[in-house]
Write a structure and sequence with these properties.
The protein is of the alpha+beta class. The protein has 23 helices and 30 strands. The radius of gyration is 32 Å and the shape is globular.
């Protein structure tokens, strides 16, 4: 019979008409409805046949595991009917859905597939049972003891890291292996190592299911690890010409590698299992990653993980392949609940990583030590941990990007920052570095971070390189083309709290954040104050106050989006609850604010646009909520939000960085040392000013962060001005982030029963710049 020639066939379901795949595709909606009503249909292509049957024809074993079966909407099934037919004929039933509800099932037309224990397509109640796959002991022994058999070492899936492969013994077919690692420890990189070695070195097909990563992230990590080149500079386009050439050669070498990446949305375990059926000769499935904290937009997260791991374990057993999944937590109770066959628990301190291996039936087994080469997005054997000590001449990555005079990763006597917020201290001091004894004698005054010598070390190094010339050292640190930007980015990488967030993975910018022309601003209004009180006559005695480190304080308190920004076209009506927990953060379009207080700076800035709605960062929005509250005397009505681009965020991202910089700043103030003071001020100022411009800062391009931080600094100053007015002082002038001119006794003023200001140089204090008269030049 021709492949697509209809006819009649006798099956275990009775005599039914055989449909060719082409005509079945055209009539699939009607055939599914008929099958759901109890009328099976045989669909065939050549020797492959499957019965489109009612769900009641599923064997009781499959009915109990229906949620684990591959499921496809009918609309999609029409396009993929050939693949679904092949999978069903091979022994794995396929569910067909009307919308999200199972309507019918494609079942094998013949008793069980010879290699798969699959229920046969027999109507319930007829007494038929599914044939089982039985294997003689001799054959099982051959699988284990015969070289080259499926259980032998020659077919084991390896990580390509000798120490780890020796400990684990490879990823065994039919097992689910879980890499359990806290955020930032590198669990995803360990999973990627197995995928790289299998697909690139052994040229065996791999399915890489990326939940939370994009295919660009994965490709960049592969290029970085295989070349190697710095991953973050690769992602931000800051490679040197030589590095770009080397990376291009790596790309050419990897073309055609059988690595199949699925980074689509709604990635469920069922989708992964179904996709695995479509890849011939599949050797490994990698799931990167399972997310412990529930996220409604991520199916592989939270409470869904237990069912997902059961489905993945079933996939491993039925396809007789290893499945490797990365989990973003190492909590023992969470790992135990997921019940994997093998668990690799990864812990990392700086460049040192430890893998503890445990099996479900045998408990803890062994431990392996690895080296974390995070700049290259990979782990290596311990012997490759650090190059020999000694200064290395750095090469500028681009005309506007400069590495520090000595890369801390390349000298063993220098503490290297790691993304987890720790430094790995060397075991032995090296006499090759003149600065090493001084660093060794210093005590870390900040137990919170262990980074308190970062600034002083860089200053000492610059002075050493420039033979004690403070001006030359300052130019090298803080001048145009100096090291301030890469230094502060290195410090940020070492101190960021939300280590699971990849700050160099840039989301697509919404339209209001997009510059229409290269040199023009975007549409977001930061509400910068520029206020002069015209009701105060010239000649009035004024106390000019200076706010300390305004951008540093704003970095400490700004709430920044770290998830994917989503569009709320209908606005946002939950402003009353804003500021109570894990808030949304981003930009919002609001109506103009009525402001009837000419003696106070306008909350949207005194050089604001005068008509129409405005896009503002949420830091400005929160200040508007404050000014509408009773604590500020209900100075205005709450803003009306017309549209929003927001995401869940964090107020902790820069807190440790601020702690380190402010500690060094206060020490420099106490010592009256201008060089570190200027260097620190340049670091945080340039961090904010270049955050939205990748031409200056190659590692960070987040314009919405920049707007939120600037808006926070402006709002902080405006709050001080309004509190001063409520404390009985007269606001004379407000400008920028730090300029506040008041009439009256500023140190005697009280707000809510407490001193309005305290004098000093700390972030929560304020200092007098001078006493003047209004109108004086």
């Amino acid at each position: 019979m021709a492949e697509d020639t209809p006819g009649t066939t006798t099956t275990t379901a009775g005599v039914v008409r055989r449909w060719g795949i082409d005509e079945a595709r055209k009539a699939l909606y009607d055939l599914v409805d008929a099958a759901a009503a109890g009328q099976p249909v045989l669909i065939g292509r050549g020797t492959k046949c499957a019965v489109l049957s009612p769900l009641s024809h599923l064997d009781s074993t499959w009915q109990a595991q229906m949620s684990a079966l591959p499921a496809t909407p009918v609309t999609t099934a029409r396009k993929k009917l050939g693949d679904l037919l092949a999978a069903a004929a091979s022994g794995t039933p396929q569910l067909l859905l009307h919308r999200r509800t199972p309507a019918a099932a494609l079942l094998p037309a013949h008793p069980a597939h010879p290699t798969t224990p699959t229920p046969t397509a027999v109507p319930a109640g007829e007494g038929a049972t599914a044939a089982r796959r039985l294997t003689a002991l001799d054959d099982v022994l051959d699988e284990i003891l015969t070289p080259g058999a499926s259980g032998g070492d020659s077919h084991a899936v390896l990580f390509g890291i000798h120490a780890l492969d020796h400990t684990v013994g490879g990823l065994r077919p039919g097992t689910l292996t879980l890499v359990a690692a806290a955020p930032g420890a590198g669990g995803s990189l360990l999973a990627a190592a197995a995928a790289r070695h299998t697909a690139l070195t052994r040229q065996l097909p791999v399915l890489y299911a990326a939940s939370g990563l994009t295919r660009a992230d994965i490709a960049a990590r592969i290029i970085a690890a295989e070349t190697p080149v710095d991953y973050r500079r690769l992602r931000t386009g800051a490679l040197t010409a030589a590095e770009e050439q080397t990376a291009a050669e790596t790309r050419a070498r990897l073309v055609g590698a059988p690595l199949h990446v699925d980074d689509g949305t709604d990635l469920t375990a069922e989708v992964i299992a179904q996709t695995a059926l479509e890849i011939t000769g599949l050797a490994l499935v990698v799931v990167d990653r399972l997310q412990y904290v529930h996220d409604p937009a991520v199916p592989l997260s939270g409470p869904a993980l237990s069912a997902a791991t059961r489905t993945l374990a079933h996939l491993a057993r039925t396809r007789n392949i290893p499945v490797l999944a990365a989990l973003d937590t190492d909590l023992p109770e969470v790992v135990a609940a997921l019940d994997p066959d093998v668990t690799l628990t990864l812990t990392r301190t700086g460049e040192r990583a430890r893998i503890d291996v445990a099996e479900r039936d045998f408990g803890p087994q062994d431990t392996s030590q690895l080296c974390a080469e995070l700049p290259y997005a990979r782990f290596t054997d311990p012997a490759d941990s650090l190059p020999a000590p000694g200064p290395v001449q750095a090469t500028p990555a681009s005309p506007e990007y400069h590495e520090p005079p000595e890369s801390p990763r390349e000298t063993a006597d220098t503490q290297r920052p790691a993304p987890s917020g720790t430094f790995s201290a060397p075991e032995q001091p090296h006499a090759t570095s003149a600065a090493a004894p001084a660093r060794q004698q210093r005590r870390l005054s900040s137990a919170k971070t262990g980074l308190s010598t970062f600034v002083s070390d860089r200053v000492a190094r610059a002075l050493e390189v420039h033979a004690g010339d403070a001006d030359a050292a300052l130019k090298a640190l803080a001048g145009d083309g100096g090291s301030a930007i890469p230094d502060v980015m290195e410090l940020f990488e070492a101190t960021r709290v939300e280590t699971s967030y990849q700050h160099t993975t840039y989301p697509k910018l919404p339209e209001p954040l997009t510059r229409k022309r290269r040199d023009n601003a975007d549409e977001v209004w930061e509400a910068r104050p520029k206020f002069t009180n015209t009701l105060v006559p010239d000649g009035t005695k004024v106390t000019e106050l200076d706010v300390n480190a305004a951008y540093l304080a704003a970095l400490q308190s700004a709430h920044l989006p770290i998830r994917t920004i989503t569009h709320n076209p209908e606005g946002w009506d939950d402003l009353a609850n804003y500021g109570k927990g894990m808030d949304l953060s981003g930009i919002c379009r609001i109506d103009p604010i009525d402001w009837e207080h000419p003696e106070l700076p306008h909350p949207l800035g005194d050089d604001r646009e005068t008509s129409g709605t405005l896009w503002v960062p949420t830091s400005v929005l929160l200040s508007l909520k404050d000014f509408a509250s009773p604590s500020y005397g209900e100075l205005c009505t709450p803003p009306t939000i017309r549209e929003a681009y927001v995401a869940k965020g964090s107020a902790s991202l820069f807190k440790t960085l601020v702690h380190v910089l402010n500690e060094a700043r206060m020490h420099a103030i106490y010592e009256d040392d201008e060089l570190p003071k200027a260097y620190i001020a340049t670091m945080y100022a340039k961090l904010v000013s270049t955050m939205g411009d990748s031409r200056k800062n190659h590692e960070l391009r987040r314009p919405e962060w920049q707007h939120i931080i600037r808006g926070q600094a402006f709002s902080n100053l405006r709050r001080k001005a309004i509190r001063a007015h409520q404390a009985g002082l007269t606001v004379v002038q407000v400008g920028g982030t730090d300029e506040l001119h008041l009439e009256g006794d500023v140190w005697a003023a009280l707000w809510n029963g407490k001193p309005l200001f305290t004098e000093g140089r700390a972030l929560n204090q304020i200092k007098i710049k001078k006493i003047s008269r209004k109108g004086e030049k």
